[in-house]
Amino acid sequence: MSSFSKAAALAAMFPFVLAATPDTCANDSSVLSCSGTSTNTCCINSPGGLFQQVQFWDTDPATGPTDSWTIHGLWPNNCDGTYSESCDKSRAYTDITTLLQNAGQTDTLSYMQTYWLSDDESDEKFWEHEWGTHGTCISTLDPSCYTDYTTGAEAVDFFVKVVSLFQGLPTYTWLANAGITPSDSQTYSLSDMQSALESAFGAPVILLCQDTNVVYEIYYAYNVQGSVQDGTFVPTSNVGTTSNCPATVQYPTK
C-alpha cells in the first residue's frame, strides 16, 4: 500500500463530528497546489500550497517512543521557500485539548499525547503554537470554506490531518528497513539515509542536523490536489530548505 493510501486509511479512523462541512471541491480536485495562482482558495491551497510535514528525532531530552520520530508540524510554504505566519490571530485558539475532546477526537488527542511532544514547553503550548502560527495560514481551513461552521472546526481538521499524515510517514521504520538504526557509536552516510527515505516516500526529503552532525529533524513535502481536509497529498521536493548535515552523520539513540 502506498504512503498516501496508508494515510487515507488511517485518517478514516478519526471521524469528524463537528457540525461543519468543508466546501465541495469536485471541480478543483485535479488541480495541484503550486501549479498556478487560484482565486478559489477554499478548494486550492494558495499561496501556501507546498506543505512540509516536519518531524523531530529528540534525544536530549528525549521525547516520544524510542522507536519513532515525533511530530513537529505541518507548514504551508508559499511554493517559493517563504512562509506566511500567524495569519488570523482571532483564531489562535487555546486549550486544544478541550477543543479535540468536544469534537469527539479523543483518539487523535491520545495519539498527539504520545507522538506530538515538546522538549521545552508544555505540549498544549506547542500545539497552540503550531496551529496559530501555521494552521491559520492554510487557505482551505478558513471558516468561510465551511457550511454550518462551528468555531474551532477548522483547527480540529488541522490536527486530524497532521496526525494522519504522520502515521503514513514511519521514518524510523523506513530507515530500519534499510539497516539504519539509532546508535551511539556507529555513524551513517547522509546520502544512504536520504536515499532510503526518498525510496519509501516517493520524493526527496531534507534531513537537518544539530551539533554539527547529529540528525534531529526531517522535512517531507507535498502538493495537494483539493483541500487539506479531504484532498490528495502528492509527494514532491522541498523548496527553500536545504540540509545542513555533513556527509557522515550520527543518528543517536533516545
Automatic annotation (TrEMBL):
Q: Single GO molecular-function term?
A: RNA binding
UniProtKB keywords: Disulfide bond, Endonuclease, Hydrolase, Nuclease, Signal
Please tell me which top-level EC class this enzyme sits in: lyase
- Which PROSITE patterns does the UniProt entry name for this protein? RNASE_T2_1, RNASE_T2_2
Native organism: Phialocephala subalpina
Taxonomic superkingdom:
Eukaryota
Record-listed E.C. numbers: 4.6.1.19
Signal sequence residues: 1-19
Q: Which GO terms describe its cellular component?
A: extracellular region
Pfam families, sorted: Ribonuclease_T2 (PF00445)
Q: Which family does it belong to?
A: Belongs to the RNase T2 family.
The protein's matches in SUPFAM superfamilies, at most eight in alphabetical order, are given as:
Ribonuclease Rh-like
Instruction: Spell out the protein name for this chain.
Output: ribonuclease T2
Which CDD domains does its entry note? RNase_T2_euk (cd01061)
Catalytic site residues? 72, 130, 134
Would you kindly state one Gene Ontology biological process term found in this protein's UniProt entry?
RNA catabolic process
